[in-house]
Amino acid sequence: MATTTRPQHDLAPHPEAHDPSLDEHTASALRLWVIMSRAQAAVTAQASADVARHGLTLAEFGILEALYHRGPMLLGEVQKRILVSSGGITFLVDRLTAKGLVERRSCEYDRRARYAALTDKGTALVAEIFPEHAAVIARAMAVIPPEEQQQVANSLRTVGRAAAGLPSHSAE
Amino acid sequence: MATTTRPQHDLAPHPEAHDPSLDEHTASALRLWVIMSRAQAAVTAQASADVARHGLTLAEFGILEALYHRGPMLLGEVQKRILVSSGGITFLVDRLTAKGLVERRSCEYDRRARYAALTDKGTALVAEIFPEHAAVIARAMAVIPPEEQQQVANSLRTVGRAAAGLPSHSAE
DNA sequence: GCATTATGCTTCAGCACTGAGAAGCTGTCC
DNA sequence: GGACAGCTTCTCAGTGCTGAAGCATAATGC
Do the chains contact at A80 and B13, CB–CB below 8 Å? Predict the structure, then answer.
């Protein structure tokens, strides 16, 4: 029998024990970090399992979803949006192309650049699975009330922007 | 010049555009998911870069930190704590052993089981780098006030436990 | 007590992705 | 109009981890 206690797909850090060498502010921040990592990992595991039913990774789904909601995009734009490496975006688009879900189109005004665009098959797939996927996420989040979700979102947006080195209220 | 727009080390999903087919509750949950993923990715990138200065991955650091704060642990315990696969824990402990930071000890009462324990070198390393690491995390979180951190932590704990399939207020 | 089932760790092939480098294209500044 | 900095994409070797199978040991049922 295989053991493999379903690993939550993402590594979560050090659930903090009490370390007397830390001041209370630091210890509290560390606890938040641990809790955030675990929540993220647990929800990611569900989201990942959901798209895996259709033979997709989360990164692939992210690309499909972006193209579905925004139309054709330059590879570089997609890359920034789903946060993968430059090599990664090429690799992922290749794979989606091989699956017949995405196609590359050349850019008329800049011959270095290429667009990624959904094929009809890709559009149909996203239209089919996106609502279910959204429901999976929503169900995971629904354990806290909407106004709490709103507050958490505001706080985490601040954390995320600061950590990513962005201005506090950038447009994009 | 290499381009490689520093990928935040973790894949973040689909920043939601407005999809009229979704009800507002779902759309809001989805936005939270995106924001949480990005915040997590950004902070992870910083944490990861911090431990990378010492030639460690976050998973390795997680093991060292757990052993430092709790003493020797069975491999299976460590595995559950840092959320890696069964194969992963063997692999990681092997690598830490090769670096001379961790050693395996056999268990007196169950000859299947093995303990992982810090060596002197490992203990010294954690003692050296843990405070800095905690400070890096704390700095990232410090952009929101302590009481807000507390609220976010409470909310996310609920989300994490529910998504991981645990009871709402389990002890561990 | 002996089969059966469960548990703890290991092995190993495989996979998703990174990151450094390179090739091609564009615009700009002499 | 040529050099060159700066993008955009692609290549590919390398990495860190997963997950299924497997071995050894322990616990349980009969």
Answer: no
- For chain A, what is the domain count? 1
A118: closest CA among A57, A81, A172, A71? A71
In this predicted model, what pLDDT tens digit does every residue of B132-143 receive, in sequence order? 999 999 999 999
Instruction: Provide the pLDDT for residue A3.
Output: 45
Q: What is the CATH number of the domain that holds B142?
A: 1.10.10.10
Q: At what angle do helices B58-70 and B24-52 cross, to 10 degrees?
A: 80
Closest chain B C-alpha to A156 CA, distance in angstroms: 6
Structure tokens at B54: 């010492």
Torsion of CA A135, A49, A141, A37, to 10 degrees: -160
B136 touches chain A (CB under 8 A): no
Domain of residue B75 covers 44-154
Across the A:B interface, residue pairs with CB atoms under 8 Å apart total 265
Chain centroid offset of residue B103 CA: 22
Query: Touching check for A14 and chain B: CB below 8 Å?
Result: yes
Instruction: Return the structure tokens found at B129.
Output: 């780098």
